[in-house]
Amino acid sequence: MATAQVAEQTGPEQPFFPDEPFKPHMRTAIPGPESHKAIRDLDKVFDTGSLNMMANYQNSFGNYIADLDGNVLLDVYAQIASIPVGYSNPTLLAVATSPEMASAIINRPALGNFPQHDWADILRTGVLKVAPKGLDQVFTAMAGSDANEVAYKAAFMWKRRQERGGADVEFSAEEISSAMNNQSPGSPHMSILSFKSAFHGRLFGSLSTTRSKPVHKLDIPAFDWPQAPFPQLKYPLAERASENAAEEARCLAETEDLIKNFHNPVAAVVVEPIQSEGGDNHASAAFFKGLREITKRHDVMFIVDEVQTGVGATGRFWAHDHWNMADPPDMVTFSKKAQTAGFYFVNPDLRPNKPYRQFNTWMGDPARAILFRAIIKEIERLNLVESTAQVGGYLYSGLERLAERYPNEIQNLRGKGQGTFIAWDSPRREDFLKRAKGFGVNIGGSGERAVRLRPMLVFQKHHGGFSLYRPGLCDIGKTQS
């Protein structure tokens, strides 16, 4: 059996959660008998087809998730990259039980009609405090899919305003009547360009830009929108530099050709800094700068989907900060670790020119915006973005050594310099994930073959010794269990 650790300890480390479990503790298989009972009961009233494990959040703390059978697992999946600062975080608990939060919960406003008196202050001291460079406004939403959909709507309205000649030009009678019949010109033939293997959500508009798995899209009508190739880089990157540069150039050329020639004119390009659900696919900063140049040249919106990559996971607060672009994206969408959602922007023409064009009852949630503000303060207090960058480098170097020892099990290791946003390909991915859970590590996959790390920002070096490679875990090809 293998006994490799991720990396050696490099000195004492002050834990963020002193009372956190020291290591995973497994009493039963997962699911155990109590979880089986709970799952059967839940299945009577709720779909359990995608259930991973039945959790007990009252007994979950820090980086550890508990179930009903006394099992405690180190969680490096974190609710699909959505828990930022640990389970049962005491700072967040204090905010959640404050009078301000109670009022926001029980008096939830329809923000478009009846915003609460301090909504601007909540946004300025929270959501907008961490706005991406160059963007100073926000449109709040309910979830990541919703954030992308309202961004798409903003792009379409902006493009048609341009074509119409400005915000003050009224809709024509033909536009008004044809829109009610889902026909042009009121419902114009325009599109959002996304990339192969992309994931931008499962609502109707966002689903038409999602290209990661057929199961997301089957049986659902879709818009006739284009998909461009996303670079398929070869690893190790340093040894394949010229080949990868040619691949990125090819993808940029095809993207520009689609923008110029696709039969439904493109209003916006949407891209993830790292394709997450589609297999943790990376591209260089030069590729994304090229996209920015193409969108500027052809006067289309550039939307960066930071739903999964945002809020510190890559060692920068926003993953696109790694690109060092002179011109910021037109819109940046966010959710997951923010615990709220929406899109950032700066161009005033992205605001609707009439009421109710970007509208629903809630238009976000002050309670979740208050929570994000508390998360930001906790990130700053513990210096978690810098910590994530350091821990990511620590994990990556250990995984490099393990990849040398187990080259058949750890293939195409990627994410160097991207914080803890690390992944690799495994020929027996599903077996690996199941085996990891048996060793007390909750971890997830993406795409067809990738194992992906999505730990919380409070994941530290001392967790590494109990995380991915417990004794025997890497011997999956030799011994099945």
TrEMBL record:
GO cellular component: mitochondrion
Annotated signal sequence range: none
Sequence segments annotated as region (Disordered): 1-34
GO BP terms, alphabetized: gamma-aminobutyric acid catabolic process
Biased composition (Polar residues): 1-12
Primary gene name: UGA1
Enzyme class: transferase
Gene3D superfamilies reported for this sequence: Aspartate Aminotransferase, domain 1, Type I PLP-dependent aspartate aminotransferase-like (Major domain)
Family stated for the protein in its record: Belongs to the class-III pyridoxal-phosphate-dependent aminotransferase family.
The protein's Enzyme Commission number: 2.6.1.19
NCBIfam families assigned to the protein according to its UniProt record, in alphabetical order: GABAtrns_euk
The reaction(s) this protein catalyses: 4-aminobutanoate + 2-oxoglutarate = succinate semialdehyde + L-glutamate
UniProtKB keywords: Aminotransferase, Pyridoxal phosphate, Transferase
Protein name: 4-aminobutyrate aminotransferase
GO molecular function: 4-aminobutyrate:2-oxoglutarate transaminase activity; pyridoxal phosphate binding
Database matches in InterPro entries: 4NH2But_aminotransferase_euk, Aminotrans_3, PyrdxlP-dep_Trfase, PyrdxlP-dep_Trfase_major, PyrdxlP-dep_Trfase_small
SUPFAM superfamilies, per database record: PLP-dependent transferases
Cofactors, names only: pyridoxal 5'-phosphate
